[in-house]
């Protein structure tokens, strides 16, 4: 598993598409979940970024929707080996959400409604690489896919794109999340096939 | 809440790789709410990167199991104790 192997090519529409190693193409959208789908009333929904010194930056649902939105079209890669190409989302860039956050932290621990967590370096959330999204293909994000809002970090395996996102804790130390603490790779780069610890 | 789980019997196969006894026949105690019941009655979410078994009383995660090509990771920190029935010694 530790050997880096080149991606292989598949035809999609009229263009060549390169998939990460070990992945196959799917046109549907499989639902993976480690627990019950939480019911989150929008008038109680909040998203919070907490700095390493305890400072909190908080958005209500209405405040999130008032922020300038982006519509990224990205490929997504699940560690269970399916890849879905050209998915279009609508949401707010983490660059914008982090704009006023004062931090020197290097790591982020993402929390979800329902208790799920996932960790990643803070730099992987910045520079146009991550969003909090609330629409998928022009419709509101369905609960089974993480609605009302989920994290989208498409350059890493999709378990990092936490469904039902509730907040991000900025930390000076790296803390393994739900899957990272039980055998999955701490970083999860699909192009280096970092599925499991040690890959 | 949607019900997208199976019962704990879904763990029989993957746990048989690790244990000589049928762990689904054991009784487990939830570290969160104290609920005690058969592993077979846990709520297992298997449409995931691993198996996640939750307490039927409070939904707390009692067991996680991940199988890679060459190893298994088992987390039981949500299970306070397991009573495993055995033949008389």
TrEMBL record, chain A:
<dbReference type="InterPro" id="IPR000572">
    <property type="entry name" value="OxRdtase_Mopterin-bd_dom"/>
</dbReference>
<dbReference type="Pfam" id="PF00174">
    <property type="entry name" value="Oxidored_molyb"/>
</dbReference>
<protein>
    <submittedName>
        <fullName>Sulfite oxidase-like oxidoreductase</fullName>
    </submittedName>
</protein>
<feature type="domain" description="Oxidoreductase molybdopterin-binding">
    <location>
        <begin position="35"/>
        <end position="179"/>
    </location>
</feature>
<dbReference type="InterPro" id="IPR036374">
    <property type="entry name" value="OxRdtase_Mopterin-bd_sf"/>
</dbReference>
From TrEMBL, chain B:
<dbReference type="Pfam" id="PF20120">
    <property type="entry name" value="DUF6510"/>
</dbReference>
<protein>
    <recommendedName>
        <fullName>Hydrogenase maturation nickel metallochaperone HypA</fullName>
    </recommendedName>
</protein>
<dbReference type="InterPro" id="IPR045423">
    <property type="entry name" value="DUF6510"/>
</dbReference>
